[in-house]
Design a protein that fits this description.
Length: 596
Amino acid sequence: MSNLLRRFFVLAAAVLLLGQAGVCSGGTATRQEIRVGVLADKGIENAEQEWAYVFDWLNRRLPELNFALVGLDHPGMRRAVREGSVHFVITNAGNYSELEHSDGVTRLVTLDSPLGISPTQAVGSAVIVRAESPLRELADLSGKHLLAASPDAFCCYQIAARELLLAGVDPDRDLGRLEFVGFPIQAIARAVKEGRADAGIVKTCLIEQMVAQGEIEPGALRVLSPRQIPGFRCQTSSRLYPDWPFAALGHTDPALAKKVAIALLEMPRTPEGSQWSTPAHYDIVDDLFRDLRIGRYATLQEETLAALLQRHRVGLGIVAILLIALVVHAVRVDYLVKRRTRELNEMHAEKERLAAAMRERQSELEHAGRMAILGGMASAIAHELKQPLAAIANYARGIERRVAAGRLEAEPLRSGCQEIERQSSRAAQTIEKIRSFARKGGGSVRAVSLAPLVREAIDLFRVGRPDAEIVWRADADSDRYRVRADAIQLQQVVLNLLQNAFEAQAGRGNPAQPIEVSLSAEALGYRVVVCDQGGGVDEAYRARLFEPFFTTKPEGLGLGLSLSKGIVESHGGSLQLRNTQTGVCASFWLPEEESA
Ligand code: ADP
């Protein structure tokens, strides 16, 4: 019986076990897999351990479903949510807030841990330093070496970063060094304790846990800017933020979400004392993102320029107006400069035209002056030419008579012809002198010997004024005196001075008084002096002598002295008139050729 009974129980147990196994295997085959993405900053194993209680509970509570943990890092979490490859997620408040905004993830419940005051005020950051560190406040961290887990670690960077920013220390700019060392965060506490950094960011209550577990001695580490938050048993440098939510994705079946939410709310406390509670507010996380300009506020960093422009619009407006004014001014100045340059060029061209016209007039005037000199000498010149012509005629007639009388002795005929030739060349020379002197326009400026030039002028004058007595005195070496000059113009000056001297003497009735012409060397040049005994210049009109058209003579043109002065000065020289006891000494100085 007992055997039978034992067999029956064994059989029954076997049947029961088999049946059970059949249900299990049949159930597993038909159980819908529900994938739950879990943020696994500290590695998948760690995550599986941490959340095993929850998954066990769900799988037991909802046996028709098979809840599978999918461990993800931050990028993996983003991808899984975007692709819809998970039904639910368990993540920290920061990551949740991001996903809520970007992909419509909705929290069902929030973890209620025994460390927090409430699900809404559960976690914060403790910025720790060694006990003996001189640092007291978060603001003291400027320029210091700070350790944190990673840029997207909520508890172990972002929460503290916000407090630092509000304390006036921009973690991106003001720290001496910001080093991200990853998880586990216990390593950060150890590194700070060992003096490998000035400070470190850890999750609130970590230090208390490590002390409790004997990992560090009590009082070895200190928290910067500690906050007193009633009911919170751990030290914190920051305000507190909500705990991790269990959230559904947008595509998750609402009935399933409801079932899961109820199951989670019904979950008994874990051995550590955690349970799920109604969903917390996550607005504070949004504020953090805005302050840090991360997550969905990352664009604010790009908008900074726009904000900056907006903030400084008045100043920028003034700068813009100034710039525009500057550009307008530059364009205007450019325009004015171009216009002025054009005007100056036109003025310059006009000046050139006027100068050319003036030169032309001057040349004509000088020509007129020469013609006037020759005009005054016309009868004397005619007389001068008449003499050789008469002599030529005489000799020609004599030769003709001899030929007619048959007196053809060679010698008288030859000497007659020679005389004709001599007289005709004398006439030709006179004509040539007059012709070149009367030529229109000046000759060219070149190096000339001053003495022969003056002597030639005297000769020409003698042709016109045969009754004039001219005494020529020159230094012994005067033939070496050379100047750069237009020879015709200089002769005109000498002739003018001679003419004035002659006329002054003629005016006093003694034209044949000797007129003395001298040439001498003087400092850096040579002086030609023409002295007469014509009584001198009346002091009353002395100042006007060089005015054009000033004359005291009934037949005078008044051009001689003004033209002569102009000519001499255009050669770099000077011309003066001074009274002597008996008359006037008119003189001009010219620079020697080298210094001309
Ligand atoms: P013009 O001989 O045709 O009068 P100039 O310009 O040569 O013109 O001379 C101007 C005036 O200067 C003369 O009218 C004369 O009164 C005076 N003058 C020039 N040279 C002498 C001189 N050697 N002695 C006296 N008066 C002179």
